[in-house]
Amino acid sequence: MVKIRWLGHSAFEISTQKVVVYVDPFLSNNPTAAIKVDEIKKADYVLVSHDHFDHMGDAVKIAKKTDATLIAVPEVALSIKEKIKTVAPNLGAMVNLENLKVALVPAFHTCSKGSPVGFVFTVDGKTIYHAGDTSLFGDMKLIGEIYKPEVALLPVGGYYTMGPLEASVAVTLINPKIVIPMHYGTFPVIEQTPDKFVEETRKKAPTVQIVILKPGETYELK
Ligand code: NI
Ligand code: MN
Asked: Which of 1, 72, 109, 124 is deepest in the core (most CB within 10 A)?
């Protein structure tokens, strides 16, 4: 079983019996954060999609504290001054790590160092696509075809990323079994609820299950 816990914004805790993964752990100064860094006792990997503060967040702190391996593009990984373990592949192919397979995939967005990315990763036989911050782009169809992610975690809040309309089209390109919206409700400029995304997705992709989590809630993927 894979537990997918939304921590607010784009931050997720993905855990199995063997491995604990944090993605974009923006917890400190995140008004919607479900947990504090102090509550994190164990982590094996910390994935960072790009160097914006709301994604880099507490990644280094968590890696330092738990001895987890931080995964990001080389430019972001090399810029970290603290002594932590890093794995820094570039965009391209699946990388096999202990209890985790991960590929960095494109995200259309901006950042200061390197390129923004999304992640497709497999834990305990389940494949999840975390799109990072991105606009809609046609190659999401390829990500869906190649990796067949069971779950897609997609930004839907608009302004900084896709909004509800674009994200609902992304669902049709990726064709996951389950979609969980993220990157909304954190700041005044982004959509405060996933309602429009739900409405649009029900129209365009009626067979896809939409899972709405509140920060702190867990979806159990069996
Ligand atoms: Ni960003
Ligand atoms: Mn962001």
From this structure: 72
At 11-65, the pLDDT tens digits run 999 999 999 999 999 999 999 999 999 999 999 999 999 999 999 999 999 999 9
**From the CA of 110, which ligand is nearest?**
1
Cα distance between residue 16 and residue 34, in whole Å: 19
DSSP 160: S
User: 124 C-alpha to center of ligand 1: Å?
Assistant: 29
CA distance 175 to 150: 9
pLDDT tens-place string over residues 136-172: 999 999 999 999 999 999 999 999 999 999 999 999 9
Task: Identify the three-state secondary structure at position 182.
Answer: strand
Ion ligand 2, residue ranges at CB < 5 A: 54, 133
Task: Report helix angle 140-147 to 164-174, nearest 10.
Answer: 40
Dist. CA 144–CA 149, nearest whole Å: 6
In the reported structure, the alpha carbon of residue 160 is separated from the centroid of ligand 2 by a whole-number distance in angstroms of 6
* pTM higher than the cut 0.90: yes
